[in-house]
Amino acid sequence: MKSVFVTVGTTSFDELIATARSPPALQALQSRGYQKLVLQVGRGSLPLPQPSSSPAVAVEAFRFKDSLAEDLQGADLVISHAGAGSCLETLEKGKPLIVVINDKLMNNHQLELAKQLHRDGCVLYCNCSTLVETLQSMDLSALKPFPPGQPEKFASFLDKVFGLQ
C-alpha cells in the first residue's frame, strides 16, 4: 500500500496538516496511487482527525512518538515542515521529500534550507498554497539521492585542532 507521511516535528504547523488532509490534496494523492496518509501533527491546535478509510485515501494521525523512524521507513513519500532535523532524517533514509515552508515564520531560515536542498536536487519545496499543485505535478524520479555524511572528516579536523594528530 503506497503511503505518505506528513511530519511537523515538535512544532505547530496546523496549516500544513489542514492542507494535507483537504479533499483536493487527498484527490491528488489518490490520483498518484497513494492509499494511506499518516499525519504527525505535533503541538498543533487542530483536533486529531479520526482514522478514516474513505474511498480515496485512508488517514491516520498522532501527535508525537519517541521515534519517527518506523513511519519514515514505511513511507513512499514524506511531506515535511522545513526543520533541519526532519529534512535530514528523511533524506538520510533515502525517501522522496516535499518540504513545505511555513510562510508565517519570521526570519524564515527554513526557506534557506529548503532552497539549498532543492538547488542540490534532493527535494521539492512549496508552501501550503501550492502543495496540491506540487503533488499533481511532482516528478519524484528527478530527485537525487542525498550524499551521506562524512563524520570521519570532522573527527580528523578536531584531532588536528586539539593536537591529537
Note down, in words, how this protein is organized.
A hairpin with a 4-residue loop joins strand 3 and strand 4. It contains seven helices and seven strands. 36% of the residues lie in helices and 19% in strands. It is of the alpha/beta class.
> Please, what is the average pLDDT?
91
Largest beta sheet, briefly?
Answer: 7 strands, mixed
What is the alpha-carbon Rg in Å? 17 Å
Extended strand count:
7
Structural class: alpha/beta
The percent range for helix content is 25-40%
Shape: globular
Please count the helical segments: 7
Residue stretches low in confidence (pLDDT < 50, at least 5 long) are none
Span between termini: 51 Å
If strands are numbered along the chain, what order do they take across the biggest sheet?
3-4-2-1-5-6-7
Secondary-structure element series: EHHEEEHEHEHEHH
Q: How much strand?
A: 15-25%
